[in-house]
Amino acid sequence: MGGITVSPVEDYVYNMLPPRDEVLAEMEAEAAQKKIPIVGPAVGRIFYQLATMIQAKTVFEMGSAIGYSTIWWARAIADGGRVIYTDGDPKNAEKARGFFQRAGVANRISLKTGDALELLSEEKQQFDIVFNDVDKDDYPRVLRLAAPRVRKGGLFVTDNVLWSGRVADANAVDSRTKAIQEFNRALYASPDFYTTILPIRDGVAVALKK
Ligand SMILES: C[S@@+](CC[C@H](N)C(=O)[O-])C[C@H]1O[C@@H](n2cnc3c(N)ncnc32)[C@H](O)[C@@H]1O
């Protein structure tokens, strides 16, 4: 799972989770087998809660892979809402399309393939939620481009912000770790957001747009 809390606590949290339906369970098994880095059920439940709490109708997801996190958002959005799935790999999108149909959420999701940052720039509207899960080197650029696309009172949510704990190394030289460190600093310093990092799994930043 790539968790950063000690293993017994991680196990405790995950063992308590209610079982998922057949489609999500199959996706979790496939992700584990093929080493696809999905957010997993503990984080999926946070997404469901967040979207429900703000009665989100529009979600722009940057980096969707086989669509596991997309399904959690899609099940939480209000009637008539839409989640935009994006991924650079068309094979992922094809796979995701099948899962969306089986999960009964295909009519709430628009699939787009290509660079998520470019695809976002093609959208003219603001979103209730922008979720960032693209390549980590791009995180500082995502903050600059995505921040204006979140509506006031909406959420900018980002996965992997603790990067297996490597962000705590002040002397890190790895480009992805440095990019996430820069992202976290800038997000907390931004006057546009009120931010909290939830230390669940690999760290989830939840930033409320002021
Ligand atoms: C961590 S996985 C996403 C997992 C997914 N959010 C989930 O939890 O189910 C990251 C995905 O983002 C895609 N990706 C990375 N950078 C991207 C970019 N700039 N634009 C579009 N897709 C990107 C990769 O192809 C990969 O499938």
Written overview of the protein:
The chain has 210 residues and is an alpha/beta fold. The protein has helices at residues 7-15, 22-34, 40-53, 68-76, 90-103, 116-122, 139-146, 175-189; strands spanning 58-62, 82-87, 109-113, 127-132, 150-159, 193-198, 204-209. α7 links the parallel β4 (127-132) and β5. α3 packs parallel to α4 (68-76). The chain is globular and about 45 Å long. It starts with 6 loop residues before the first helix and ends with a strand. The mean pLDDT is 97.
Keywords:
alpha/beta; 7 strands; binds S-adenosylmethionine; 210 residues; single chain
What topology emerges from the helices and strands here?
Layout: H1 7-15, H2 22-34, H3 40-53, E1 58-62, H4 68-76, E2 82-87, H5 90-103, E3 109-113, H6 116-122, E4 127-132, H7 139-146, E5 150-159, H8 175-189, E6 193-198, E7 204-209
Parallel strand pairs: 1-2, 1-4, 2-3, 4-5
Antiparallel strand pairs: 5-7, 6-7
The structure holds S-adenosylmethionine.
The largest beta-sheet arranges its strands as 3-2-1-4-5-7-6
Which percent band covers the strand fraction?
15-25%
For the CA atoms, what is the radius of gyration?
16 Å
What is the 3D form? globular
Structural class: alpha/beta
Helix content: 40-55%
Number of strands: 7
Quick one: biggest sheet? 7 strands, mixed
Task: Give the helices and strands as they follow along the chain.
Answer: HHHEHEHEHEHEHEE
